[in-house]
């Protein structure tokens, strides 16, 4: 079953006397398992807000997000928690995903502890994570500031994969990286998707990235979504 947005609208500052500022209106899109829907458009058009809304981090002013046929608005707390684990977000700046005062090993172990993975299995799980994202074991002993943007983005994806997600909102995941590193991350995302059948909502202002990654895509401009392919 897909992750689907039906007639989503979002406004800020709405009241009885004012409709507020409209960010987007009547947006409908669908993300299928193992497929990528690309969302492009100029900066400031609300792409990230739409991504957070689809992921359940923001509530729409109108419209409904459906997860496996069930509306988010009708979910019980336990159901919503399960949904949030299965629908993750990978942000543009990977440094925000890590505690600057803690070594990478601690950041990974912290997620495993939250998932109630026995301590005896932490080493094996961590080794599997590093193998998946193509990083050496030595990165575990370093602080975030000692790693490159590409290495941190790989680790950010690795931590997300520990949660065994079904969908990931990729919010400009390569725009802060060098061109050569961008290509590496994009190819890695494709490999992970093929292996795990994860559905992506890819947000980018770069049409070349959208075309390379997406099975279908649209452009968000002036609050409306135009499906292009």
From TrEMBL:
InterPro entries tied to this protein: AAA+_ATPase, ABC_transp_ATP-bind, ABC_transporter-like_ATP-bd, ABC_transporter-like_CS, P-loop_NTPase
Cited PROSITE patterns: ABC_TRANSPORTER_1, ABC_TRANSPORTER_2
Swiss-Prot/TrEMBL keywords: ATP-binding, Nucleotide-binding, Transport
Transmembrane annotation, as ranges: none
Keyword flag Transport: yes
Entry-linked SUPFAM superfamilies: P-loop containing nucleoside triphosphate hydrolases
Family indicated by similarity: Belongs to the ABC transporter superfamily.
Name of the featured protein: Oligopeptide transport ATP-binding protein OppF
Source species: Methanosarcina siciliae T4/M
């Amino acid at each position: 079953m897909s992750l689907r947005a039906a007639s989503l609208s979002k406004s800020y500052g709405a009241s009885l006397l004012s409709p507020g500022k409209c960010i987007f209106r009547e947006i409908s899109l669908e993300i299928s398992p193992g497929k990528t829907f690309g969302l492009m458009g100029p900066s400031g058009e609300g792409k990230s807000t739409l991504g957070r809304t689809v992921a359940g981090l923001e509530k729409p002013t109108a419209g409904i997000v459906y997860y496996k046929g069930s509306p988010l608005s009708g979910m019980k707390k336990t159901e919503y928690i399960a949904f949030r684990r299965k629908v993750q977000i990978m942000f543009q700046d990977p440094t925000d995903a890590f505690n600057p005062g803690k070594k990478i090993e601690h950041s990974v172990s912290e997620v495993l502890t939250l998932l109630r993975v026995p301590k005896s299995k932490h080493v094996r799980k961590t080794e599997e994570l590093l193998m998946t994202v193509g990083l050496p074991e030595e990165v575990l002993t370093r602080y975030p500031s000692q790693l490159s943007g590409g290495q941190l983005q790989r680790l950010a994806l690795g931590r997300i994969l520990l949660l065994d997600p079904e969908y990931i909102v990729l919010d400009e995941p390569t725009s802060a990286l060098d061109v050569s590193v961008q290509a590496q991350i994009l190819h890695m995302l494709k490999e992970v998707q093929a292996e795990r059948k994860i559905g992506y909502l890819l947000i980018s202002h770069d049409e070349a990235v959208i075309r390379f990654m997406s099975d279908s895509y649209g452009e968000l401009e002036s609050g409306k979504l135009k499906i292009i392919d």
